[in-house]
Amino acid sequence: MLTSHELRKKYLEFFSNKGHKIIDSASLIPENDPTTLFTSAGMQPMIPYLLGESHPNGKRIANSQKCFRTQDIDEVGDNRHTTFFEMLGNWSLGDYFKQEQVGWMFDFLINEIHLDPQNLYITCFAGKKELGLARDDESAKFWQEKFKSLGINAEIIDDPKENGLQNGKIFYYGENKNWWSRAGVPNNMPIGEPGGGDSEMFWDFGENLGKHEKSIWKDKPCHPNCDCGRFVEIGNNVFMEYIKTKTGFEKLKNKNIDFGGGLERIASALQNDPDIFEIDLFLKAKKRLELLSGRKYGVNAEETFAFRVILDHLRASMFLIADGAIPSNKDQGYFTRRLLRRAIRFGVKLGIQNKFTAEIVKEYIKEYKNDYLELSNKQEFILSELEKEEDQFRKTLEKGLKEFERMSFDKKIDGTESFSLFSTYGFPYEMTEELAKEKNLKISKKEFDEEMAKHQNLSRTGANQKFKGGLADMGEESKKLHTVTHLLHFALRRVLGDHVEQKGSNITAERLRFDFSHPDKMTDEEKQKVEDLVNAVINQDVPITCGEMTVAQAKSAGAIGLFGDKYGEKVKVYTIGEFSKEICGGPHVVNTSELGHFKIKKEEASSAGVRRIKAVLE
Ligand code: ALA
């Protein structure tokens, strides 16, 4: 049987032989496209050319595109959904159209990679008269001819939703199923967006959902789009010929083809097992996960779910980090963080005690490195980002889970609780929501968002007030260095020990100077660790919050700092996530994301038992 690598190669060769220029996969982080966070279809980087601009590589293009779909995160766990996948794609930019596309697809699937035509089913667009969008009779006819060439009589069915398969081979559906645009159905499309009717190819896997599960289909009326798992879409031929205008739809300058087919799904059709996680691309990683957990894939439903989440999420994280989406609390990096933390939680569920994400990803790198050079080029970077994130999350995960248990007693997790799990224990909201659902607890995203907004305002107010209090001349650079001094203090205590105490601090616009109690000269390794830790926190985009309390309250809240009476009755306590809590007059930046990169320039003796660090933000 073909490997997935061979399948990808065969597809690209096939279309290269049909005059297509093979281009590299674009990054998962779209360039020059602010409308979307991720590349989620092969056509995304092709938009200008589908709209009529000329492509530097001509009118026939093909590739295998890395794709990531955030909307599928919650679907992962069944036998066929993944967040990351490779989309095999070919495009005609005003060149060939339906007849060639249908013919070549059939030839590729049936004659080239030898799928059984008996299991192949087709859908076509029924049209939408009100919008002047015609029913696609041509494609149905071309498919029929191809089936006929093999002696198969392909019946056309108009009402599959009502009456099921009816021994048909080609099925008509409306705009919800057989219209494609980035925004979905015609009515949802913004003006200027291209789209078109499409013709999809489905593979019939029959009653079994792979070795491990049975379909719910048995004895129910079923049809290609029925979602019971019997039929799986393996490719979509979009006839990209319309553009949305103020008044409805017009024809684009060119009639285009936009084909996209999931490599992993076609590979699962080839093995005739619909469980995508059984294909070769996952094998090494899965074996490793079995070894690390001592569990076997496919034995028990709950564990199989955990295996799938881990296998999907770690593969996606690897590709995301390679393309620059390192774990953080915002934008693309937030998705990487969500995926990783969820994978780590499911790893713990599988009984894995130690760090494991980098171990699994090493297996994926072995699997993919010849096809995606960025993985071998950036191997060290990817693995170190994984290690950092896992180290950090493992520090709080167990405590956070205990805290969650404690919060569950009243059968709900309210906004302050989900926010506290987020800010103190690093639980992405979605993870808390999943935990809550597992235990049938009430939870509300709205409450969480409100709490988040409150805290962000509080930290801004704190900073503003202090400016009014006479420090307005403190420049932005000094403010940043002031905040990073707190992080340095935290990191020194973490790396050298709790004997470290502040003995003095002096900040200019260019550098910070920090004196602290410690008997020995710091080693290069210790300095590196401190730098890494500070930068890791900075990269997590942690908000800085400020509260006012009595010295006694501050002490019992675990704040460090100078407790002398010069602060008066009430003191301000600045908190940087779970990392630092210090009595301090401020001001500070609002979020660590403002800080830049921290670097120690010098470490030297200041006086007996006191060391001095000079450091900068670059
Ligand atoms: N652009 C089409 C899709 O993503 C091919 O399904």
Explain what the structure shows.
The chain has 618 residues and is an alpha+beta fold. The chain has three domains: 4-270, Bira Bifunctional Protein, Domain 2 (BirA Bifunctional Protein, domain 2, 2-Layer Sandwich); 279-466; 476-617, Threonyl-trna Synthetase, Chain A, domain 2 (Threonyl-tRNA Synthetase, Chain A, domain 2, 2-Layer Sandwich), CATH 3.30.980. Helices cover 41% and strands 21% of the residues. It has 19 helices and 19 strands. It has helices spanning 4-17, 47-50, 98-112, 137-148, 160-163, 175-178, 263-270, 280-293, 301-322, 331-349, 357-368, 373-377, 379-407, 415-425, 429-438, 445-471, 476-496, 524-539, 551-556; strands spanning 21-22, 60-68, 84-93, 120-125, 156-157, 170-173, 179-181, 194-204, 231-245, 248-262, 412-413, 442-443, 502-507, 512-517, 544-550, 570-576, 580-583, 598-607, 610-617. Strands 1, 2, 3, 4, 5, 6, 7, 8, 9 and 10 form a ten-stranded mixed sheet that branches. Strands 13-14-19-18 form a four-stranded antiparallel sheet, covered by helices on one side. β9 (231-245) and β10 form a beta hairpin. α3 packs parallel to α4 (137-148) and α9 (301-322) packs antiparallel against α10 (331-349). It is elongated, with a radius of gyration of 29 Å. It starts with a helix and ends with a strand. Mean pLDDT is 91; it is low at 462-474. The site of alanine has 8 residues, from β9 and β10.
